[in-house]
Amino acid sequence: MSVSGPFINRPVATTLLTIGVGLAGVIAFRLLPVAALPQVDFPTISVSASLPGASPETMATSVATPLERRWAASRA
After folding, report:
1. 43 phi, psi to nearest 5 deg
2. 65 with 49: CB under 8 angstroms?
3. Measured CA distances, 20 to 23, 38, 70 (Å)
4. Which pLDDT value is given to residue 33?
5. Is 5 left (phi over 0), alpha (psi -120 to 50) or beta?
6. Are 63 and 49 a contacting pair, CB within 8 Å?
7. Non-local CB neighbours of 59 within 8 Å, separated by 6+ positions
8. Per-residue pLDDT tens digits of the chain, which is 76 residues long
9. Could you give the CA distance from residue 50 to residue 62 in angstroms, rounded to a whole number?
10. DSSP characters for the chain?
11. Could you give the CA distance from residue 23 to residue 75 in angstroms, rounded to a whole number?
12. Does the pTM exceed 0.90?
């Protein structure tokens, strides 16, 4: 007798077993601990630069822009 023999000879038991396994799977699936939005820690980089006595325009052109260009070039 093959593996499928008992399932062919007893179709009602096969149907009930299939429904039971399917129901257990649905219940187990709904009990899975899955978060809709998982908690993720994103890395951050903090850069500080100072030029005593400089105006905001000088800081933007002399310090911030070269730093931004260098960082953008290193990421590409």
Report:
1. -70, 145
2. no
3. 5, 32, 63
4. 87
5. alpha
6. yes
7. 49, 51
8. 689 999 999 999 999 999 999 999 999 999 998 878 878 888 888 878 888 888 888 888 888 888 888 888 877 6
9. 11
10. --TTHHHHH-HHHHHHHHHHHHHHHHHHHHT----SS--------------TT--HHHIIIIIIHHHHHHHHHHH-
11. 51
12. no
Six token digits for residue 71: 């960082």
Tokens of 43: 């890395």
- The identity of residue 38, as a single letter, is P
What tokens does 16 get? Answer: 């009930």
For the record, the structure tokens of 42 come out as 């994103």
Q: Which two tokens stand for residue 65?
A: 């822009």
